[in-house]
Amino acid sequence: MRIAAADIGTNSCRLLIAEVIEGRLVSILKKITSTRLGEGLLESGWLHPKAIKRTVDCLLNFRDIMHGYQVSAYRVVATSAVREAVNREDFLAVAEEETGLSIEVIGGEEEASLAWEGVVRSLNFPELPLVADLGAGSTEFIYAGQSPVIKSVKVGAVKATEGDWSREQIRAALEEVLALAPRFRKNPLVLTGGTPTTLVAIKKGLAEYDPDLVHGQKLTYQEVEDLYQMLEGMPLNLRRRLPGLQPERADIVVKGVLIVLVIMDGLGKDEIIVSESDLLEGIIWRLAGASPGV
């Protein structure tokens, strides 16, 4: 049975079509399109008409792809940008009417739970991990072991870029989560999202993105710091030509990497594990009815 999952994010829309075969998730197609739906949201609180049009056009394309692949079930979710927008209902009405798709706005806790699902089903760990799903508009933290923790923080790469947030401002926004550092001293820290996967792609110099070369890779604090210094000192036009970095992400990557550094430093972690598998895979598992849940 072919299943589709789509995520309407602050910076991009993503689509995954997959099957679950004998307890394994088999990816058939994965597509990402930069729509920057959350552009200007921090200042105005509204989703802008041009950003809405870009996103609806993308969803029309996703709908056609799903029809072409004859998916049996699908779920489309909207996260941080739509969650926070004053005109979220207007966006949903337009998007659903024009595409015929059913769109769900999910809360931060469900977003975190789905990301956890995608991570723990795709990687093996000696200890249950603390997972941080770093997005463009928010970052979700989840630990689903004994005394679970699920937190959604309004810190993301687009938001930090538009607000020109400093390291200190990012740390202050993450203060509640970073205070948990002693509890998670022995747990691996796994990061998902466009920023951490991009860091691996830049490190490896991937001219063409290959998820198999990114998933499960480790980055040390020093490697992330070195990449941050390189990217911060590089003019935007050169960043856009850097192997491993999507041109559409070039303007937000510096603040995204700064968020990674603050998380690592605040939680006392010398390294992170990067997961290509995240919320989209979590949706597939749950639609397939093969999930233990969180």
UniProtKB/TrEMBL annotation:
InterPro entries: ATPase_NBD (IPR043129), GppA/Ppx_hydrolase (IPR050273), Ppx_GppA_N (IPR003695). GO terms for molecular function: pyrophosphatase activity. This is Ppx/GppA phosphatase. Belongs to the GppA/Ppx family. It comes from the Bacteria. It comes from Syntrophothermus lipocalidus (strain DSM 12680 / TGB-C1). Residues 17-287 form the Ppx/GppA phosphatase N-terminal domain. Transmembrane segments: none annotated. SUPFAM superfamilies: Actin-like ATPase domain.
